[in-house]
Design brief:
- It is a single chain.
- Helix 7 crosses helix 9.
- The chain folds into 2 domains: 118 residues, Rossmann fold (3-Layer(aba) Sandwich), CATH 3.40.50; 95 residues, Arc Repressor Mutant, subunit A (Orthogonal Bundle).
- By secondary structure, the chain is an alpha/beta fold.
- Helices cover 43% and strands 17% of the residues.
- A 5-stranded parallel β-sheet has the order 2-1-3-4-5, sandwiched between helices. The protein has a 4-stranded antiparallel β-sheet with strand order 6-7-8-9, covered by helices on one side. A two-stranded antiparallel sheet has the order 10-11.
């Protein structure tokens, strides 16, 4: 999930529609709401965020520091006009990249992946055992062969592998796949997606790599 911050609701809703076409969930915030949210949100929710996109808003140079106090995912600022001074201020404030409108959401996703590569996580994907997953919309691979999955199942597999070693509950997975504030979908849909994913992985691998424990959640075991 990508969090978008902009003082114009039309902009945040526009990003939501554009990213949705690429299979990416977004959650939009007005600046005042975002400042309160990022300081108080539960850690399980902040862990569902893959990147922050900061658009036009007052005092946005304060946001990178607030984000870094909670997590280390990519932070990208979007400029409406070209200004070297403004761009340098944003980098000094702690953003990872600055882009200027107009740009395609695929460019933003490419920049997010480039930042992850610098952090040692992205580009060529993440491989655990026979499974390699990507974060740019590509299908995963099993033993080097493409393993086609529906979008939601693919995102769940990516999220489980990105958080390998941690047990994730249904609410965390739901937030990562559908967004923190999506009230139109029941959390129980996660169980259906995971059931289908487990069946496909079992058929391909010969065993079920997703371990589940009642009340504790899910984790993936491929080592």
């Amino acid at each position: 999930m990508i969090v978008v911050v902009d003082e114009r609701s039309l902009v945040t809703s526009g990003y939501s529609a554009w990213f949705a076409r690429e299979g990416i969930t977004t959650t939009g915030f007005a600046p005042d709401d975002f400042g309160d949210w990022v300081a108080t949100v539960q850690q399980s929710d902040i862990m569902a965020v893959e990147a922050f996109l900061i658009g036009e808003c007052a005092n946005r140079s304060q946001f990178p520091q607030k984000i870094r106090a909670r997590c280390s995912v990519p932070v990208i600022a979007v400029n409406e006009t070209q200004s070297l001074e403004h761009t340098l201020e944003l980098f000094q404030a702690g953003v990872d990249d600055v882009v200027r409108k107009p740009m395609h959401v695929r460019e933003i996703l490419a920049r997010i992946n480039a930042i992850r590569r610098r952090y040692g996580n992205g580009g060529t994907g993440t491989q655990i055992g026979p499974i390699r997953v990507f974060s740019d919309g590509r299908d995963p691979q099993i033993n080097g062969v493409d393993f086609t999955l529906p979008r939601r199942e693919r995102r769940i597999l990516e999220y489980l592998i990105a958080n390998r070693g941690r047990r994730l509950n249904k609410a965390q997975i739901f937030s990562a796949i559908y967004g923190i504030f999506d009230s139109d979908v029941e959390e129980s849909v996660v169980e259906s997606h995971i059931s289908k994913l487990r069946k496909k992985l079992r058929e391909q691998l010969g065993h079920d790599p997703i371990d589940s424990k009642r009340f504790l959640g899910y984790c993936i075991n491929l080592d």
